Amino acid sequence: xxxxxxxxxxxxxxxxxxxxxxxxxxxxxxxxxxxxxxxxxxxxxxxxxxxxxxxxxxxxxxxxxxxxxxxxxxxxxxxxxxxxxxxxxxxxxxxxxxxxxxxxxxxxxxxxxxxxxxxxxxxxxxxxxxxxxxx
Length: 135
Known about the structure:
By secondary structure, the chain is of the alpha+beta class. 21% of the residues lie in helices and 27% in strands.
């Protein structure tokens, strides 16, 4: 799974995903990609599910790049626990994705296959995404 081995702090504050970011909005590795239409959070399970959906569509001799990394821990308290008594334990990891960022890139495939794979991958994270092509 995609999460860090070590972090500086065990628990982080929630934070917000607001503004558009300049870096990560252009294709760097492949010819095709999926571009985020809104800001939000993607869990490490959703990143892996989208990567698997893309790779299953392409089978062999294709390249896939995942450009987001789930490095922020998410905490939660157990069920039926009273308020207070500190912050809960780490339950999972997320990646913050800003509007216009490209989380997945692909290459060495036809345009139609890339569009179909981008549609499959866009359903996994729970954010609205669109197909993006190098021009």
